[in-house]
């Protein structure tokens, strides 16, 4: 009997509210209530209380800040990866231009044809590597994350150790 009194006292304090929900939202509410083994009313009441609470704006701001932090980390990772790719390409080009002699005109046509074949094989190999999901950044040690293209030590290494 005391359980009925508790329920009756609680019902006297609460006011009934009828609302209309979009069918998809109603289905999602029912799913959430089922997963948490609570009534739809309890879930809706908590959501409304959260929405109306004075710290709701602060929580929303914190959620947005968290998302922005994640985006910032992704951008930093992209900047790092692009910096590494640019430096690798620059080192390769410097090395290639330094070590490759000019060809006489008589053999340039054959060399260009062979270069075209090699380039096609390169593109095929690149396509296979990208299809497998392999990435250069996964092969690099984590301490390269603090990479700065203007770092004097890195520039010395890129120039063959000369100071």
How does this structure look, described?
The protein has 163 residues and is an all-alpha fold. It is 75% helix and 0% strand. The chain contains seven helices and no strands. The radius of gyration is 32 Å and the shape is elongated. The N and C termini lie far apart (90 Å).
Can I get a quick summary?
The chain has 163 residues and is mainly alpha-helical. The protein is built from 7 helices and no strands. The longest helix has 44 residues, at 56-99.
Portion in helices: over 70%
Distance between the amino and carboxyl termini: 90 Å
Query: Count of helices?
Result: 7
The largest sheet is: none
Rg for CA atoms:
32 Å
Mean pLDDT: 80
Write down how many β-strands occur, each being a DSSP E stretch of 2 or more residues. Answer: 0
Task: Tell me the β content.
Answer: under 5%
Secondary-structure element string: HHHHHHH
Global geometry:
elongated
Output the structural class: mainly alpha
As residue ranges, the low-confidence spans are: 149-163
Oligomer: single chain
